[in-house]
Amino acid sequence: MQTTPASPTLRREDAALLRGEACFGQDLVLPDAMHLVFVRSPQAHARITHIDASAALRLPGIRAVLFAQDLGLHAMPAINPLLPLLHDVRFALLAHETVAYVGQVLAVVVAETLPQARHAASQVQLSLQPLAVSRDFDAQSPVITRTHHHHGELPHHAPSASVHLKVPRLTAMPMEPRASSASWDHDTQQLTLWLATQTPSRAQADAAHVLGVDVAQVHVICPEVGGAFGARASVSPEDLLVALTAQHLRSTVRWTSSRSEDFLAGMQGRGAQLEGQLWVDAQGHLQGLAAQLHFTLGAWLPYSGVVPVRNAARILPGPYALRHLKIDGIATRANAAPVNIYRGAGRPEAALLMETLIDMAARHHNLDPVDLRLKNLVPAHAMPFTTANGELLDSGDYAQALTQACERFGYAHERAEQQRRRALGECVGLGVAMYIEPCGQGWESARVTLHSDGRVTVASGSPAQGQGHATTYAQIAADSLGCDVQQIEVLMGDSQTCPVGIGALASRSTAIAGSAIVQACANVQAQARQGAAYPITAEERFTAQEAWSYGCVMLRLRIDTDTGTPTIERVVWVDDAGHIAQPTLAHGQLIGGAAQGLGQALMEQLIYNEQGQLVTGSLMDYAIPRASDMPEIDMVSMHTPSPHNLLGAKGVGEAGCIGIPAALMNAARDALSPQGEADLQLPLTPEQLWQAMHTTQPKEKS
Fold first, then answer.
1. Residue 386: alpha-carbon gap to chain centroid
2. Residue 5 in this model has a pLDDT that exceeds 90
3. Rounded to two decimals, what is the model's pTM?
């Protein structure tokens, strides 16, 4: 349970974290707990012909080796049906006939110590008959879901810009690998499950369903969580197998993932192929957009598995007032690890496609890319604005964000300086990207209790994974009640002390969970005025339409002509997240998103070979940003409040992952544009950029 006493530091969470006193999943003290290790499939697709655990069972300290016939033929939980499912997507919790990805669990080894469990797992003998492997985007893979938005008529002449973009899979790479522990109380028939999750209430319901017990018999506790980014928004097979094993053995068990296991079998992100065509007239007016979106799904679908393709399709054409469009999206399965809602979940793909097309069309018509954007952005006076897709953009001044970015960046001077440096033989590009960010909708819960001595307890259904929610929620409650923030205690992530909630995802916590706190505070104040006896408690659910953040990223990129190495020389970023409760924490969220956006744009990618083996399965092969890779970011905040929640707040958690990759793609293409239209893909590695400099055909002089 995340409980936070009053603290004079900026973040009340920090004191315990900095002193090493915080309790993460691996820090739990669970007397007599047994250790779990999973036997995983070494093949991507195969029929199980035989498993022999006899050698493992003879080893010292081994309590059990469990298979599907021992724990039951359970399936993974149902998914969120935001799009229609065209095929049955049920997936076995524990493999019993076939395996469908490298790393799928075939057996659970339980031992007194972790070394004993690991050794025994290595002694389990597998006989697997290989089957055909389906890779990401295989034409033969069945379409699991599809979405489309068709409005108006597209022009019949050739488009001004056409592009095919590949977005590789990524791993979320939280600082803390996964960890789950469970304890079954045979007398009370209750399970306590310690789980690093963004959605404790849904995890509680999923565990109860698999265990065959009432939800009230499952107690979920979230220890400190060292990062999530969407990868912990759904329960994994391992989480549920830990719970089942505890119930089956009537004992306490614990499992801690290795970094290699997280690479292999943890939930991944991104994975898409995007095609787009944009029509623009000679004066710079957008005439039409066509987009074909193909997203990959892994061997099984997490709860929010269809969200990325849905989001990308509904967000296009971004912040532009374009009424004629034809957008088609599909998602297909592959014999690979599952894909979940990694930070942005479809938003980065939509921005990457649209902003790349805008720049390409500007070059085609010899127009300035900023002028082209300004001419087509949804105007502030049109807000709230309903897009051709039926999405309601709540508030904002998109043109002002772009104008402020240009002024701060010194855009005209930068263009002149670019020409001077090009004349000296340098390869320099300027990148611009606009973005919009829907920030979640639906409800969230809060319970506020006023005590007779002036103390206040705030319990939220939306927990934290490092964002500083305890600090933000305390500030919101203190402002609402007119009391000192030191009087506020915040409870999160415990199903016995917190109300049922949706959870922390989609950049929704401050806007929706914060509004629920405001609503509950107003309720207890009203009761106090009416003379209610202490303690006074109110529990509220606040339901909201989506708030839409937006912004503009503008940057300068130099590409070394000898090596292709890209260097980000300057970044100006204007973001509008509405009313911000904690500016310093919001700034940290933006910078964190920028780091992950930079990683996607320049270095990160998961690669599977033809046999479905992950060949980038460690930090020796998979590059992530270091501190030295991060440029200084000149950030400007606008504050257009949203009318869709009580705080006027919008999300900030995903903006960096949306705007930064698109701006870097445009900067790289702009740098190479004197030689022609380069076919660049993410990540923009030095090798790819060097090859492009030496293979792109020079533009013909007119």
1. 26
2. no
3. 0.96
